[in-house]
């Protein structure tokens, strides 16, 4: 089954066409294209008559319905092969109608499978960018980190700190002592020691993305096999909360492998599938599902958590997908920034026309804390050049909406397109644009997550604030302000960003995921994702009183 042949079938009808055009469509050189055309002709798919003379069109005539033949083959594959093998065919260039038929058939591959082991198969629209705690900069990857690894402590939505890998601690204004639980196993079978923890935390402190967050910490040392001391002579009011963040997960690296202590370990991870298997030596409560498979599907695939029950009914679970802000480059003239901010605030209440899941944010970055604000009318300044607006694929719809309202108000706009991965890994590219929409999802506790957003190296706002003395003056106060008293500092930074037109609130994002009604104990946890460690499927067995 030739993917290039299907692409050509759904792109080019019978008729005149140049061989160079075919080469561009299927992405091959002219010489390779000639060989493929000869092959397809010999197999009876098409008839191709080359045009005589340079620049003259050739004649292509289709002899078979390629898509119909391929669809029949894939339907059989979907019937007999595993989800991992069959899912790759969904990524071919099918027509809309054919793709919908195939995806409907593939739905039967997803969900809960009860054999010797209980397995949940989940659709995944993009491969995980990383499974390493220090490289995890997107919510999709970070949610996996939360499942595979553990932290020393956990921090809930209210800011309450609970034991995780350590069972207790002593804390003063300048030092934290952690007491580790006994006999915790890594996924390779080795036992967690204080030295393992020290090595991880030192890597965190020395990592360029987190060095500013960890700056108050001067010394990390193992003082006994299960005791770790962390010293911060000038104060670090958030040390415990820092240890509860995803990037502070504890892991062990050996050769090309990285091991955690979490309730699931990674059995397989590639562009097609990621498989998590229950870790039977897990120190905590064992998950009820034995295996979870994340299988690659097209971006237009319906995102449903389903089981293999014949009678499928669904109910929606709503979760927070964070917020979106328009970030502006400080190099833009202040008058231009204020004018762009004014236009954004004027039309912000229409953001749901770009995407119905978006709600206008007329406040700030802090839900329940930021206050509504209004901007007075601002005269249009002179634009000596087009404004460079960065478009990232995951903010495609609101970015095009933003371009539309700016253009309507006389702002010359030029689009620069950047992939999601490049945007995450190359924050320096932000210096080449004037503004862009940034989507942010807080991990769990808003109080620490906002601070983390302002300082961690993966955050685009952190690089801006690093060069602004007014903001640095406020940020330096956090380390010596009790964590429970951070709200006033948060509000000050939030308001400064708005008043300087560096960060303009745009939307709150909500998502609604359908779940099969026999999936039990659904909890939304880190970054608005499902806590897989608690899921179970209610057996279809009649209950009689």
Question: What's this, in brief?
Answer:
The chain is α+β, with helices and mostly antiparallel strands and 545 residues long.
Description:
- Helix content is 29%, strand content 24%.
- The protein has 545 residues and is an alpha+beta fold.
- A hairpin with an 8-residue loop joins strand 2 (46-49) and strand 3 (58-62).
- Helix 2 packs across helix 3 and helix 4 runs parallel beside helix 6 (96-106).
- The longest helix is centred in the first third of the chain and has 15 residues, at 66-80.
- The model has no long low-confidence stretch (mean pLDDT 89).
Descriptive labels:
globular, 545 residues, six-stranded mixed sheet, alpha+beta, 24 strands, 24% strand
Total helices: the number is 16
Q: Strand order across the biggest sheet?
A: 18-22-17-21-19-20
Instruction: Give the overall shape, derived from the CA principal axes.
Output: globular
Q: Major sheet: size, sense and barrel closure?
A: 6 strands, mixed
Secondary-structure blueprint of this entry?
Elements lengths: L2 H7 L5 E3 L1 H8 L3 H13 L3 E4 L8 E5 L3 H15 L2 H5 L8 H11 L4 E4 L3 E7 L14 H10 L4 E3 L5 E3 L2 E6 L3 E6 L13 H13 L12 E6 L2 E5 L7 H5 L8 E3 L2 E3 L4 E6 L3 E6 L12 E6 L17 E15 L5 H14 L10 E3 L26 E6 L3 H13 L4 E6 L1 H6 L9 E6 L5 H10 L4 H6 L3 H7 L11 H13 L3 E14 L2 E2 L15 E2 L8
Parallel strand pairs: 5-16, 19-20, 19-21
Antiparallel strand pairs: 1-3, 2-3, 4-5, 6-7, 8-9, 9-11, 10-11, 12-13, 14-15, 15-16, 17-21, 17-22, 18-22, 23-24
